[in-house]
Amino acid sequence: MSPDHPPRALPTDLLDLLDLQARFLATVPLVDPDEPVPSCGTWRVRDLVTHLVEIHRWAAAQAARFPEPPPDAPLAEPVDAPVDLACHYRAGATELADVLRRLDADAPAWTLLDDSPGDAGGTVAFWHRRQKSETLVHLWDLRKATGLHTAEVPDAWWLDCVDEAVTVMHPRQIRLARIAPPPIALTLAADGEQRWTLSGAPPGAPAVSVTGPAPALALLLWGRTSAHDPSLAVGGDPDGLRALDALLATSLTP
What we know:
Blueprint: H1 12-27, H2 45-64, H3 85-102, E1 108-109, E2 122-123, H4 125-145, H5 155-175, E3 185-190, E4 195-197, E5 207-212, H6 214-221, E6 233-236, H7 238-248
Helix pairs in contact: 1-3, 1-4, 2-3, 2-4, 4-5, 5-6
């Protein structure tokens, strides 16, 4: 490439995604493919890895707007045939990374912000962030499954994961009628930093707050921990507190 056309700088969320993909890939050989993943129901490690490969490839197709209506997120089926999971993940991660590197962040893309087939309001940048959060949570799943120390990542990544869950994923669950609007006004506060309130609660709904470190808040929203996590402080209206566990048992995120 000539000096007149320097390489395009990659957006921060994409750089973070590439970092997380490398961490995930490095962890795969350290775990038994048949090890259960308690945070993902009946899945084993091979199912988790295959799921993330499928999600990466699906996201690449949405970012590139392949000529077909955007489907909803696929669910992995159990993988019975022997497969080199590290090679399998590397192929899927590379496919996504290549597409996102090639496309301008501001280029039109199908996203989860509008679920109509003709959605043209989103951009490729959406998928930088979406896949970053997806990979972050599943890296936690992978390492937690076999007792590995959870990966040390910047708190900013977990804060953004919380923000995406509250502002994008939870409203979409309501929009698609997968869950009912929350019966309580739930506010989440990261230690000394940001605050969020779940949308959709009716006027006058009992107020409940959950405060704690960003990783615990993100894992709470993604169903990986409960409000009884000792790192979280819960307070609020008694009626709201009784309803909190039931709310968290619903699929706040897909």
